[in-house]
Amino acid sequence: MLIDLFAKLDRLIAEENVERRDVGTTEIPRADIRVVGQMALIEAAIDLDLAATQDLDAFLAGDYWIQKRLEQLLAEVGMTFDDTSDLIWMPSETEYIELYAGRFVRASRAKVEYVLLSKAHKAPRKNAPLIIEYLAKDPSDLFWSLVATYNVDLQGIVDAE
Amino acid sequence: MPNRKLIEQARVRHAQIAKEKKDPRYLRVMGKLIQAGLLTHATLPPTRKRVSLKDALWAGRLEPRILELIPAIVIKKPGLLVLPKELPADLKSIVAGIRHGHSTPDFRGIPSRSYRQWIPRIGHRNKYPSCTKTFRFSRHDRELLEELKKALPDHSEIAIIRKALHCLFRSANPTTGDASGDTDAPNTRRAPE
After folding, report:
1. Facing residues of B52 across strands?
2. ipTM score here?
């Protein structure tokens, strides 16, 4: 679903830039959108029981015009853009996987290990059932190495539930 | 390196959680919130039937995003849930705090920022609950208000007072913009939702 939405956003920017070129104003530069949070997990189609609230957490590097259009496109499918997304903590070494690469929009999602590490590190209680399920399904070595690097108390999460 | 002991413990706990997620209370609550457009889930179907707050709080142990939505639902869309005559003490105090614009503690493990973000997003969009404040007006104040009402016939008294407050705020803070923003903006890095 997000890929279609980003493609639509790309077309809107292209149309807007044609108009701007005609009237001689500054064109909208290319935007980079990095999806994190629950939507990154859903897009990854990971085998976890995922419920999600209707908001998109994403780091958006681009013109404010793009954010407003993205908000409108999300609203059309009953979603909202979390405009405090820039406050989300992600490990500095987070790797992103490309979702869409258009003329004006490049979108990617964080790899699941980094999203789950962020959730376990910053909001362990809220995400405890999800982290436990992930642990039960034998996490990757990357996740274990991130847990060691950031000293995340997984035992505390399992014991608290 | 993988902690095998921890994985085994997680498997036992996950099996318990998975079993509890088959409980009709969980399925009803999730279905209701999906039907209301507040949650999404790949496999669970929406349901129309109203659910009780008690069941929602129980289901929130299994899916904390339910707990995240509850304070905003109670304030902005109470019809979604069958509410008891008396709210649980922690929820009651949080609801009162939000209504009166006070800071509020975590709600059963959900940070204040996480549940408060839903207040403007549920029910009437971008609206926070209004609350009662009592002031004594002098005769002159009342005359001014009457005059303004005549001059602005489309405006109620409270609309005039709100407008005056916003004008005063803007003139005192020329670079801040509107006064209607959320003053509970977080100032620390957080987890993704």
Report:
1. B82
2. 0.84
Helix (H, G, I), strand (E, B) or coil at A4: helix
- Among the partner residues B11, B41, B121, nearest to A80 by beta-carbon distance: B121
Whether B6 sits inside 8 A of A135 (CB atoms) is yes
Q: Which residues contact B26 (CB under 8 A, 6 or more apart)?
A: B20, B58, B59, B62, B63
> And the tokens for A58?
């994403």
Q: Are strands A80-81 and A105-110 parallel, antiparallel or unpaired?
A: unpaired
Q: Read off the pLDDT of residues B111-151 as tens digits, 9 standing for 90 and up.
A: 898 899 899 888 766 666 666 778 888 999 999 999 998 88
Domain assignments of chain B as residue spans, ordered by start? 4-116, 139-172
Q: What is the pTM of this model?
A: 0.78
Closest CA to B193 of A70, A138, A50: A50
Q: Which of B14, B23, B43, B106 to mutate to test the interface with A (most CBs of A within 10 A)?
A: B14
**Domain ranges (residues) in chain A:** 2-160
Helix (H) or strand (E) holding A76: helix A64-76
